[in-house]
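ok so for the tutorial part 2 we go from a plain amino acid sequence to predicted structure tokens. step 1 is just haveing the sequence, like this:
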Amino acid sequence: MLVLAGSLFVPLAWAFKMRREQPEPMNEPLTALGIAIGVAVVGGWLLFRLGRGQRADLRRKEALLLVATSWFFGAAVAALPFRIWAFLRPADANVDPAFGSWINCYFEAMSGLTTTGSTILTRIATIPESLLLWRCMTQWLGGLGIVVLFVAVLPMLGVGGKRLFRVESAGPTPADMTPRIRSTAQVLWAIYLAFTLAETLLLRWQGLSWFESLCHTFTTLSTGGFSTRDASVGGFENLGVEIVITTFMVLSAINFGLYHQVFQGKWRDAVRDPELRAFLFLLGAATVVVIFTLRGTPVVTTTGRQEAELGPAVRHGVFQSVSIQTETGYGTADFDRWPFGAKTMLLVMMFVGGCAGSTAGGIKVVRCLIVAKVIGLEIERVFRPNVVRAIRVGRATVDADLRLATVVHVVCLFGVFGLGTIGLMVLEPDGSITLTTAATATATTLHNCGPGLDQVGPTRNFVHLGATSKCLLSLIMAMGRLELFPLMVLFTPRFWRAE
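step 2 — the prediction. this is what the tokens look like for a chain of 499 residues:
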């Protein structure tokens, strides 16, 4: 809560700037941000005082509980500026009314912190810039995780810090890049900050304002996908901007540990990484399939313009393929209108996702590799029952425990996907949503991607869903961000029993 309170000073400073520049100053964003900071500071200080004198280290159960609950409390704090602003502002038919509901605000904040990118806003441009900046900042903070930042800057956690980092880090085998876990978190954030500076300057060079450059940098590196425009990145109609964003989407979906290896001069090891090679191959192959499917098909952009030539098909096919597989969710085209083959490929890419140790969501490429090798080995055992063969990913041997954990994770993921789809169909009134809408809404929130198909497609949003459905999807977002198990254990009775 204190970290979020400190982060809120950035949009607060922007609100001061905008207030001085506008002929009719708006005080509501300033007041909303100020009250949110006050609530977060008081709440965080009280919790800090209550916790003084207690154990400094964290056991595994406590680390799991803290990481899980921090996302739900964090989303509540992050939602405060939106809800307070909507409460304070005078009624205006020209302003998007979505923030008039607390559930909507919470959904948007959870979507931000989990870097999902699903939104309830229809008219994004009507929201004050300071709140849009905060909306994008939540994704930037969630990119490598508030908990990782917490471990990097607060040494008081001791051994518990390592447990927090292990729970928070994405992927099946988070490896230490430095001897101390706090140093590892600092290295990750140093790389993250360097990419932030580089992309901001490149987007500014391509003609975007400082505000839009910073916002889209925040949401690109976190593979979040929030935009300041109703038409997303397609609203710029700028090929240079799309190239820059595409490049950094790919970079953000690669294991950040490989960048540390490159900086240490071990670039050959980084290039030979099997997950990196598989990720780039899958991304390239899927992109070719999408472009081939789009041949001769009119491409409708997010601004409503139709383009039927091969050039636009390549341009939008590449951008959307990268955006979906990296789980960013930006849009330049209404891919809900694409041929069945292209949409199917995008959905497959959504499930695969990026690399472990990146800001991308999805199953993760390394898990797909392990599962594929396990399936291949089991098929071989049908006709060679006595075969004993080690499963390797690169030079690393995958032991039996990791094999089992990987397969169980994938099975549980599809289980959550199925239950979430059924849940949405049950919670929504009969006939109000289609099965495609329910399935893709569940898939895109579970994999932290953003847009789905049909009624939650790239040119539409989630505002029409009921409050209970939004609560369910908020839970699914957190489960996807934390890789299922840290939240699933909370529903296990044994977890709450005293040891």
